């Protein structure tokens, strides 16, 4: 009899034993983590390792609520698997175990999960504080970094251009004011008819403490126009967001931004 239930990670249990040359999965517990972004989603399923020495590996199966299972994904002896780029909809997952002779057990009880794209909204800019910027033009009011988080598209941040032209990379670090599940970044280029400083290549980092950043959660190149650009990435707990501009659309040394917004949820 297979049982599968969803509970906090600290309560996961899984066991596996041999019977008549087949492996039977007694209890599985999966941990559904995050929806990835507004275009597609990802889900990570995890279970504790079996203590049975005859358990050689696992296969994980996925289907929609209206489909039947196809071929399983052989994850060998790993106890976690991530499905990427899932469209909105209802999904069902199950796992089997197998031994060294490739005898495969019956399916575990199923776990259902719904991919939803409505979880992430703009975090209020009123909570933001810019805690670091490598350059800003203080000679004019329209160059100050606070303009990028003031909720106005007619103002903008611009790196120094008067008497000095610091080169890329340029970066800004924003304290969100609290920890959120951060999943997206929006960049609005300056809207005054001039494209000086419009970002081309970029990298994004997030951190819970503003000290440990790890690898970039997103890198890429914005479209070379003045429309708002949106980047979605794997949802991550964070209080700090680091935006790094690596180049400008015309290869000049400046960076500018009319508005920066962060997408997330509590």
Task: Furnish the topology, listing elements before pairings.
Blueprint: E1 3-6, E2 15-19, E3 22-30, E4 41-46, E5 57-64, E6 73-76, E7 80-86, E8 89-98, E9 111-115, E10 121-122, E11 129-133, E12 157-158, E13 170-188, E14 201-207, E15 218-221, E16 229-245, E17 256-257, E18 259-265
Parallel strand pairs: 1-3
Antiparallel strand pairs: 2-3, 4-7, 5-6, 5-8, 8-9, 10-18, 11-13, 12-17, 13-16, 13-18, 14-15, 14-16
What distinguishing features does this structure have?
266 residues; mainly beta; 7-stranded antiparallel sheet; elongated
Q: Please, could you describe this protein's structure?
A:
With 266 residues, the chain is an all-beta fold. The protein has no helices and 18 strands. The protein has strands at residues 3-6, 15-19, 22-30, 41-46, 57-64, 73-76, 80-86, 89-98, 111-115, 121-122, 129-133, 157-158, 170-188, 201-207, 218-221, 229-245, 256-257, 259-265. Strands 10, 11, 13, 14, 15, 16 and 18 form a 7-stranded antiparallel sheet that branches. Strands 6-5-8-9 form a 4-stranded antiparallel sheet, with no helix packed on it. It has a 3-stranded mixed sheet with strand order 1-3-2, with no helix packed on it. The two termini are 38 Å apart.
Summarize the entry for a quick read.
With 266 residues, this protein is mainly beta.
* Mean residue pLDDT: 82
Provide the succession of SSEs: EEEEEEEEEEEEEEEEEE
Number of strands: 18
Helix content bin: under 10%
- Category by helix and strand content: mainly beta
Q: What is the terminal separation in angstroms?
A: 38 Å
